[in-house]
Design brief:
Layout (H helix, E strand, L loop, with lengths): L1 H12 L17 H4 L1 H8 L12 H15 L2 H10 L2 E4 L6 E4 L1 H12 L1
Antiparallel strand pairs: 1-2
Helix pairs in contact: 3-4
Length: 112
């Protein structure tokens, strides 16, 4: 329809590429789930909180502590790279780009 054409032209004008993912494959391209949150979840049980064990406060504090211990700019960049998204710092401002080879590898991994 007319609206779709306008959007397509707007995306092209602003150098935005639309990626269509296969059905039931989006989980394999959520960068923070691929690395950062996986590391966080593996650390939660190791964290010691100041709240009474088993309380909601205890669970929340452990999750926050694990997230702080698991995330930094380097791990987040690595997470996006694993999903096939890289940054081009030669441009100002830096832009996100798709690493076609890594992206295709991730598609093959997700689709089996």
């Amino acid at each position: 329809p007319h609206c779709a054409d306008e959007l397509t032209n707007l995306f092209k004008k602003n150098n935005i590429d639309i990626l269509l993912l296969p059905a039931h494959a989006s989980h394999g391209f959520q960068p923070l789930d691929l690395c950062t949150f996986h590391a966080m979840k593996s650390r939660v049980k190791q964290m010691r909180a100041g709240f009474e064990k088993g309380t909601q406060g205890h669970q929340i504090q452990r999750a926050v502590m694990a997230l702080h211990a698991s995330t930094n700019s380097f791990s987040n960049i690595a997470a996006f790279r694993k999903g096939g998204i890289t940054q081009d710092c030669t441009k100002t401002p830096a832009i996100a780009t798709i690493d076609e080879i890594r992206f295709q590898q991730q598609v093959e991994k997700v689709l089996g």
